[in-house]
Automatic annotation (TrEMBL):
<protein>
    <submittedName>
        <fullName>Haloalkane dehalogenase</fullName>
    </submittedName>
</protein>
<keyword id="KW-0378">Hydrolase</keyword>
<dbReference type="Pfam" id="PF00561">
    <property type="entry name" value="Abhydrolase_1"/>
</dbReference>
<dbReference type="InterPro" id="IPR029058">
    <property type="entry name" value="AB_hydrolase_fold"/>
</dbReference>
<dbReference type="InterPro" id="IPR000073">
    <property type="entry name" value="AB_hydrolase_1"/>
</dbReference>
<feature type="domain" description="AB hydrolase-1">
    <location>
        <begin position="48"/>
        <end position="158"/>
    </location>
</feature>
<dbReference type="InterPro" id="IPR000639">
    <property type="entry name" value="Epox_hydrolase-like"/>
</dbReference>
<dbReference type="GO" id="GO:0004301">
    <property type="term" value="F:epoxide hydrolase activity"/>
</dbReference>
<dbReference type="InterPro" id="IPR051340">
    <property type="entry name" value="Haloalkane_dehalogenase"/>
</dbReference>
Length: 302
């Protein structure tokens, strides 16, 4: 598998994100190795909060949440998905598959970091990947937070706005990642923050990951990932693992999933689920402090 690695100097002077990167190598599933990055903070002995980002962002998205969770005594671990952030970037769209992304994050979280008693925080693709991990390795997880995400199986049609996003990001000659993140926010973003989202992608040759991910979402019942996602949904539906459903009030892409998760997931019953006001799809960017505080309250409740 051919990969690109974003030069380190692209990540200097990022606003509110001075965390030093850590790295490990995982099997790329083609007899090669893939370097995956993460940042972490907080007491090493504390139960970990594993925060997974989505498309087309990276762990920079969680910069306003990390200090709040650490101040509450939690260890926070934020990986960059392969193809994003400081992680290596497979250069072909066909190098990316749903199953590979699940396996790459499994290898980081369990083989490398040996995380246990994990609180998952998953948004966008971070939920699609993280919920699979939580269902397939239930003994590793103590709490689940779903934020503007879901576990699509292709049995329910995707909204029109999602199809327009998929067509746009797959068809553009050059992807302006910062602009895409801004379009998924309600609150304005300054140039330095937009530059932070652009940083992993010096040019379009680094963008196979952002181009690939929309095409990996199961949109038909016979999608290669549909059966595994159905199995994961059934497992999580019956799981007693406490689940917080923390959606924003202004996300046309995933908003409809919030009530379904609250109603159908056993672990979500009896939980005080917040609605994060004044926030779009990327609620961590719009209202990261509010989301972090809701997670702190959820974990404090036991």
């Amino acid at each position: 598998m051919q990969t690109l690695r974003t030069p380190d100097e692209r990540f200097t002077d990022l606003p509110e994100f001075a965390y030093p990167p850590r790295y490990c190598e995982v099997d790329d599933t083609e007899d090669g190795r893939l370097r995956v990055a993460w940042v972490e903070d907080g007491p090493a002995q504390a139960d970990p909060v594993l925060m997974l980002h989505g498309e087309p962002s990276w762990s920079f998205l969680y910069r306003r949440m990390i200090p709040i969770l650490v101040a509450a005594g939690h260890r926070v671990v934020c990986p960059d998905l392969a193809g994003f952030g400081r992680s290596d970037k497979p250069t072909r769209i066909e190098d990316h598959s749903y199953a590979r992304h699940v396996e790459w994050m499994r290898a980081v979280a369990f083989d490398e970091l040996d995380l246990r008693r994990v609180t998952l925080v998953g948004q966008d693709w971070g939920g699609l990947i993280g919920l699979r991990l939580a269902a397939e390795h239930p003994d590793r997880f103590g709490h689940i937070v779903v934020a503007n995400s879901g576990l699509p199986t292709g049995d329910i049609p995707m909204p029109d706005i999602w199809w327009r996003f998929r067509e746009a990001i797959q068809g553009m000659d050059t992807i302006d990642v910062g602009r895409f993140v801004q379009s998924g926010c309600v609150r304005p973003m300054d140039d330095a923050v937009r530059g932070g989202y652009d940083a992993p992608f010096p040019d379009d040759s680094y963008c196979a990951g952002p181009r690939a991910m929309p095409g990996l979402v199961p949109t038909a019942p016979d999608d290669p990932a549909s059966e595994a996602n159905r199995a994961a949904w059934n497992t999580l539906r019956d799981s007693e693992t406490p689940m917080l459903v923390a959606f924003s009030d202004s996300d046309p892409i995933t908003g409809a999933m919030g009530p379904i998760l609250r109603e159908q997931m056993r672990g979500a019953q009896g939980v005080d689920h917040p609605t994060i006001r004044g926030a779009g799809h990327f609620l961590q960017e719009d209202a990261g402090e509010e989301l972090a505080e809701a997670i702190v309250r959820f974990l404090a409740a036991g």
